[in-house]
TrEMBL record:
Active site positions, chain numbering: E289 (proton donor), K424
NCBIfam families to which the protein is assigned, alphabetical: PRK14097.1 (NF010697)
Protein name: Glucose-6-phosphate isomerase
Primary site of residence: cytoplasm
Pfam family, one: PGI
Chemical reaction(s) catalysed: alpha-D-glucose 6-phosphate = beta-D-fructose 6-phosphate
Role noted for this protein: Catalyzes the reversible isomerization of glucose-6-phosphate to fructose-6-phosphate.
Species of the source: Dysgonomonas macrotermitis
Family note: Belongs to the GPI family.
EC number: 5.3.1.9
GO molecular function terms noted in the UniProt entry: carbohydrate derivative binding; glucose-6-phosphate isomerase activity; monosaccharide binding
SUPFAM superfamilies reported in the protein's UniProt record: SIS domain (SSF53697)
Gene Ontology biological process terms from the UniProt entry: gluconeogenesis; glucose 6-phosphate metabolic process; glycolytic process
CDD domains: SIS_PGI_1 (cd05015), SIS_PGI_2 (cd05016)
Amino acid sequence: MEKVISLNLDKVLSFVGKAEIESKAALAKQYNEVLHKGSGKGSDFLGWLNLPTSITSAHLDDIQATANELRKCEVVVVVGIGGSYLGAKAVIEALSNSFDWLQKDRKNPVIVYAGQNIGEDYIYELLAYLKGKSFGIINISKSGTTTEPALAFRILKKELEDSVGKAVAKTRIVAVTDAARGALHTLAKNEGYKMYVIPDNVGGRFSVLTPVGLLPIAVAGFDIKKLVEGAVYMEKNTTPDVPFEKNLAEQYAVTRNELYKKGKKIEILVNFNPKLHFFAEWWKQLYGESEGKDNKGIYPAAVDFTTDLHSMGQWIQEGERTIFETVISVANAHHKVEVPSDAEDLDGLNFLVGKRVDYVNKMAELGTQLAHVDGGVPNIKVEVPELSEYYLGQLIYFFEKACGISGYILEVNPFDQPGVEAYKKNMFALLNKPGFEKAHEEIQKRL
Ligand SMILES: O=P(O)(O)OC[C@H]1O[C@](O)(CO)[C@@H](O)[C@@H]1O
């Protein structure tokens, strides 16, 4: 089997012609070059671009060694939000047993997450679950000042220190943060936590291949070397010197922008494998924060099929025709389950006896594709040979690279996220945070 993901645009061509796509090849290449020359908007944040090929085995060994220490815990809490959370969660969920937390005789710690919400019941229930268990914490925040993870970490740190004492607690806490600034950096230095650095020039949503993603993924028991290998493959195969016909990132970037120009304002990332649910969440942040600005940008949405065919399927088939789909199609399942025969056949499924469940799923996928295309929904297909570290590495870098090119085609800065500050300012004003006294008075008048 050739080790590569592939892109199939056949079911787009009745909406955007091959010639139209090819006519934009030079533009995509130009923007790919702009990325590599660092001459475009947001060029301070291009550290992800050559990241895979610059990761050394010594760095990966160091991460693995830290992971091995944390793996001695029963539970590891990964604290972070947005780009400091979703990449790790995406990969871990894609590779884990679907019932991981119910497994006995575990080889890996249970991974749980905190700091990705401010749900009081969530943190209460997490603390209740952690009671009496040996647990460690990976605290991830690039800025080191994000409220959600800071709040969760404060609570979890106290819980850990109360249960094992400060001296042991500090051996079970690892910080992943900025090289020099931020509250988490200071805290980690003062407390003597093992610390990993998120390079200044790698934004949160592009940071999964830094310790932000690699450490939790290694703790969960997955092969970070293979993940990086996959990304290296894709880095080398999406450079500007790779011709457009072979350059998946350029092709995807062009196609989605051509669809956008034709009024397809919403892109739905589709999977037929529930393990990819959080991969779509990661992708949503990547494209949403990168492109949704200056009053433009494709709205990134996601569905899990066939589950959501029984909820959102109606809308997708016959609702407003402003959508297109990008399907992540996984060629091979890891396990085999065949349809058993049933003497009474009351459910009428005996015609499938001996067929694999994955075969039924594939027919659902094909049937859905044809139905949606007939219903006016263009369909981009990203084919992945199987869910493994290597192919996820390819997929991650493919989407990152395409995102950079796509953002430039859209003429936005794909590497900032100024809009995220608006809710934070209001929240701080409402909470009367020191420094926000005037804003507090102002906002009170609006209530
Ligand atoms: O790692 P940090 O600095 O805590 O930020 C977490 C997330 O918050 C954001 O900055 C938005 O507020 C995202 O861009 C980022 O991924």
